[in-house]
Write a structure and sequence with these properties.
This is MaoC family dehydratase. The protein is an alpha+beta fold. It has one domain: Thiol Ester Dehydrase, Chain A. Helices cover 19% and strands 30% of the residues. A hairpin with a 5-residue loop joins β5 and β6. It starts with 19 loop residues before the first strand and ends in a 21-residue tail after the last strand.
């Protein structure tokens, strides 16, 4: 049996300016997601959790907490952008051009804008991406620039893994 390594994300050397990554997983936002995230972050704006209040707004229904949208779209990008991150350096130019509602499915993609070696840490590089999140109808709901410090190949803490011990061989 051949053991094949799973995807471990990109390292600094793998990024090229202009590359676009279509992040593989979409996510449907539920009422529970919105209520829990709003409560966890102590957001008291009733437009997120009071259906009666929200019905009286121009939207007619609750809006998904915008910080949930930032977190979700950032999370969707991890497998392609920051699986091997040493540190997030910042989110800039966050824009929310359209609302997200409970029941929307969010997808995302990122484009590599900049790449440079770290001047102070030889084991990492700096990468900036522009990420776009959009709903099931293709409507853009969020955009942002994100800068990350990414490990170089062979320098991440998870570069070596132990082999499993004590597994019985399968017999035919």
């Amino acid at each position: 049996m051949a053991v094949k390594e799973g995807w471990r994300g990109r390292f600094f050397e793998d990024f090229e300016v202009g590359d676009v990554y279509e992040h593989p997983l979409g996510r449907t936002v539920t009422e529970t997601d919105n209520a829990w995230f709003t409560l966890l972050t102590q957001n008291t704006a009733p437009i997120h959790f009071d259906r009666h209040y929200a019905a009286q707004t121009e939207f007619g229904r609750p809006l998904v907490d915008s910080t949930f949208t930032v977190a979700l779209v950032t999370g969707q990008s991890v497998t392609d952008v920051s699986q091997n991150v040493m540190a997030n350096l910042g989110w800039d130019e966050v824009r929310l051009p359209a609302p997200v509602f409970e029941g929307d499915t969010i997808y995302s993609r990122s484009e590599v804008l900049e790449k440079r070696e770290s001047r102070s840490r030889p084991n990492v590089g700096i990468v900036t991406v522009r990420t776009v999140g959009y709903n099931q109808d293709g409507v853009v709901v969020i955009t942002f620039r994100r800068t990350v410090m990414v490990y170089r190949r062979g320098h991440s803490p998870g570069a070596s893994r132990p082999e499993p011990q004590g597994l019985a061989e399968e017999s035919s």
